[in-house]
Structure formats: structure tokens, C-alpha cells
Write a structure and sequence with these properties.
The structure is a homodimer of 252-residue chains.
Chain A lengths: L5 H4 L6 H9 L5 E3 L4 E3 L7 E15 L5 E7 L7 H6 L5 E14 H10 L1 H27 L2 H18 L7 E3 L4 H8 L3 H13 L4 E3 L2 E3 L3 H7 L11 H11 L7
Antiparallel strand pairs in A: 1-5, 2-5, 3-4, 3-5, 6-8, 7-8
Helix pairs in contact in A: 4-5, 6-8, 6-9, 7-8
The structure holds a DNA duplex (30 and 30 nucleotides).
Chain lengths: 252, 252
DNA sequence: CGCGGAGTTGAACGCATTCAAGTCTTGTGG
DNA sequence: CCACAAGACTTGAATGCGTTCAACTCCGCG
């Protein structure tokens, strides 16, 4: 699979010059294998990473060593912009499956930001959308039942991956284990397993071998009380999704 | 009580010139009463707000109309920077008790950002710390037991308010109801009540009439598995807290 | 005096965790 | 080729944390 380009990841945001500009200051691609720790909590950073391919997870441990996923980043995300501004991270970043990242030295970014305030503001924008996703995760964990949390999470990944051209509305690749999903949705692996079984039995969606299958996307979104307003998608994409996901009665 | 100044809120971040600069482009203070909706979800915004006094909450409703707090902002927070970059908000902002805000027109901010990229980056920094707090709330809701969630939340407010000079390590003002706290910690009001009763009974902390009383701060932090690394406090303040909160055996 | 919001308490129910056992797949080495 | 180990997934049964519904107190306020 080809690497995710900036233009494809952010339609309507970066123009051609800006995309080239950002691309130019990135170093060589670096590959990481499954479960590799890409950035370690607390370490000082001198560069930030762009995720070209694959998935990475932000995690934090509790005292007894159990993990909680704080975010799941997909190809086309800047996974480490925070470190450019805050110098260090307050959590770990792990590869999920095979990933490819490209580093941007902070020195280059600083230079860029001094000369191109508009581009800098666009990077700010990207980081604020991440923050909006964080807030939505708070909503999910705080207000939704177990089953709705799962459906809501699968809905989010459906829309985010679709927006990057990384899946259809009925199927996408998600190389997580059920244990990962439990750590995302704030439940035990056993319970995640049972609830996924329920979703499967009632035909809402299925998750098998790192593939999510959705026979009726509108129903999945309903089951998860999902809406994608917080993703700040490009207007045309938003409209497209509204058209494809809203009324929908019969399907092939 | 005096309004929170920028220099007091962000020690070591904004220098005198920058603080004046930001202050200069703010409009007249505006007051809001309890439960007033300060910013409405989805509306286009032409200005961003600085919170001089009081508390505001970011909330999102589920389908059945129940609220979840996504964040709690205190005096000295920029409560609406997101709108400067993203034009609209994906959630509501409510006053909690009496609050005073000062608006900054987006036009002025845009002008400023073009001329002073360093200052803009500092505002970016502020918004990234908010994002770090969001992530910590995800951790709290996803991994901690009910009682630990409460103790963790009270710990966070202890440290954040102390950092702004808005409380001591044994007592601070927090004008919330038990129902608000339930909506923050992802539980029912009844259960929040019972757990607060437990914390009171075991002497961890007490919450009464909008006051939080902590006889042994170190114990509270332990009960909530709290650490403040994610708040990116000024180094001297961090050290001060470590000194005051870490070993601590006897107290007056 | 009565109303409403906040706090408190009891009891029944149910969702989720825990512990445990067992299946299935995959990769490794005899 | 088979044996075996490891990890992911699945299922059962017991326990318990948290919700739900309900009643009741306390307080400030009109």
C-alpha cells in the first residue's frame, strides 16, 4: 500500500506548496514492527513524526500496570506534534502492526513557523482536531453503555478511515486484538469479547482477524449514538457522508 | 476576588510585553450567571474567550439528554481558543457559578499571529496542555474505579488550582454540585454521593458546600493514583509540589 | 408556609469483572 | 510430519460494583 500523502490526508487544508514544504523537511521513512514503542513517555524529543502507514496507539498505564488507550492514530495523522511545542510526551506511543513514520526535526519546524504563520496555524488546527477527538472519547467512556462504546468506536474508525480513503462504509482494516479494543473502550477483554459477540449476533457489525465488517453502517452509527461533527471534516466529505449514512433503508 | 492575570496564570510562559499584548486586544469583561450557556455547540464564532474569574464546564449530551462533562476550566484558562482555529465548537460551554470572561476578536488574533509567531506558538502550547488534560480524563474514566475517579478528579483540581494560586494544598473552592461531579466522573449522582461519603468516612477528603477539604493531600493523590506530569507545570512549581506532596508523614 | 434543588439512604436489580477452563490458530523445533 | 508452546478468542459461573427507583431530609427562598 502506498504511503498516505498530506494532500490526501487533509483535503482542502494544505495547498500544494505547503504540502511540499512540510514534506521537504521530513527525514527518511522509518519502519516499526508490531508493539514497538515509538516514543517513550517523558523523554525529551527533538523531532516530531508523521504517520505514513499503519496505526499507532497512545497509551498510559495505571499503577497496577494495566494499559488505557488514550488515542488511536491512523495513516495521515501527525502523531507527535505535541512534542514540538511541549518538548516531551506525557504518554507512550506504540506501533500497532507494521507502521512507517517520517520525522520532522523541531529545528526545521521552528524555522518554518517563523516564516509561514499560516502553515503553522494549519498544524495547530490539526492538533485541535485531535483534541476534539479526545473529548469525544471522554464522552464515549463517561456516558455510553459497554455495547454502545464499542459501536461508537467502530463508527469513529469507520468515518475517520473512510475520510482518508482507507476503507469503504461497509468494511475496513483495523489490526487490533480484542484486548486492545477493551483497553480503548474501558472494559475487560472478556467483556469486550462478549459484547462483540452480541454485535455480531444482532448484525450490527463484526470484527474478525483485524477486519471490521458492517452490513448496515447507519445502524452501527445508531447503536453507538455516533455523530461525526467533532471530526471537522471537509464540507464536501461531510455532505457525502450525510447522504450515504442518513436515511438508508435497504442495502445489497 | 481579583481577576486572574495572564502573568499569574502562566508563570514563566508569557513575558510582560506578550501579556500586555494579549490583554490589549481583549474587549470588556463580561459576566455570566450560574448555568448560563456561554458558547453554544455548532455556532460560528468570531471571538475567543479568556476566563478571568470562576469556573466553566464543557459538556456534551447523549441521545437521552444526559450530560457528560468533557472538561472543567478554571480562572486563567483560555476557554475558546479552539474556535479561533476551527471556527465553531463541537460542544457547549456553561458557566458554573458566577464567571467573568474577556473576549478577543479573531480578527485581532489573526493579525497578532502573523506578526508574532512566538506568541502564537505559546497559545498553541496552552491548547496542547488542554489536550493533555483531556487525555488524562480518558485515562481516569477508562481505567479507574469509581472511588479512584473521584479522588483523581479532586487531586487534579487541587493541583491545577494551587498552580494558579487559587487554593491551598488542604482546601479549595469548587462550586459544583454532586450531580456535576457525577457527570464529570462518569457515574450516577446517587453513586457519586455514596462514594463521596466513603472518602469522607475514611478521611481522604471531603466535599461540602462547594469546598473541598483535604486533611492529607498525599493520601488523596495516592487514592486517586494521581500524578501531575501531564499538566506541564513550570519547573519551580513542579519541584515545590514534589517537595510538599511526596514523602509527607505527619500533618498539623 | 410551601416549593424546589441538593444531599442522603435503602433495597432490588443488572451490567461488568474475575477466575477459570477450553478451543483454535500460528509458528517453532524435534 | 507431529508435538508443543504461545497468543487470541470463547464460554461458564460466581461475585460485586454501580444503577435504578424510591423515599426522605435539609436548606434557602419566595
Amino acid at each position: 500500500m502506498a504511503d498516505m500523502s498530506l494532500e490526501r490526508a487533509y483535503p482542502g487544508l494544505f495547498d500544494h506548496r505547503e504540502a511540499n514544504c512540510l514534506h521537504a523537511l521530513q527525514g527518511k521513512p522509518e519502519a516499526h514492527g508490531p508493539r514497538a514503542r515509538i516514543v517513550e513517555c517523558g523523554q525529551a524529543q527533538t523531532r516530531s513524526l508523521y504517520l505514513c502507514r499503519g496505526f499507532v496507539g497512545r497509551t498510559r498505564m495505571d499503577r497496577s500496570g494495566k494499559r488505557q488507550f488514550l488515542a488511536l492514530q491512523i495513516a495521515g495523522d501527525f502523531i507527535d506534534l505535541q512534542a514540538f511545542v511541549l518538548e516531551r510526551l506525557d504518554h507512550d506511543i506504540h506501533a500497532i502492526g507494521e507502521v512507517v513514520v517520517r520525522p520532522s526535526p523541531h529545528a526545521s519546524l521552528r524555522q518554518l513557523s517563523a516564516t509561514d504563520s499560516e502553515l503553522m496555524q494549519k498544524l495547530w488546527r490539526v492538533s485541535l482536531i485531535d483534541a476534539a477527538i479526545h473529548r469525544y472519547w471522554i464522552f464515549r467512556l463517561g456516558r455510553l453503555s459497554g455495547r454502545a462504546r464499542l459501536a461508537n468506536f467502530f463508527s469513529e474508525m469507520l468515518v475517520r478511515l473512510y475520510a482518508r480513503g482507507l476503507g469503504t462504509l461497509t468494511r475496513y482494516h483495523l489490526p487490533l486484538t480484542q484486548t486492545d479494543i477493551a483497553e480503548i473502550c474501558g472494559m475487560t477483554p472478556v467483556h469486550a469479547n462478549r459484547l462483540i459477540g452480541e454485535l455480531r449476533a444482532e448484525g450490527t457489525c463484526d470484527f474478525l482477524n483485524g477486519e471490521v465488517l458492517v452490513s448496515d453502517p447507519a445502524q452501527l452509527l445508531r447503536a453507538g449514538q455516533f455523530s461525526w461533527d467533532y471530526l471537522f471534516l471537509h464540507a464536501s466529505l461531510d455532505e457525502e457522508l450525510r447522504r450515504l449514512l442518513k436515511p438508508q433503508k435497504a442495502r445489497a
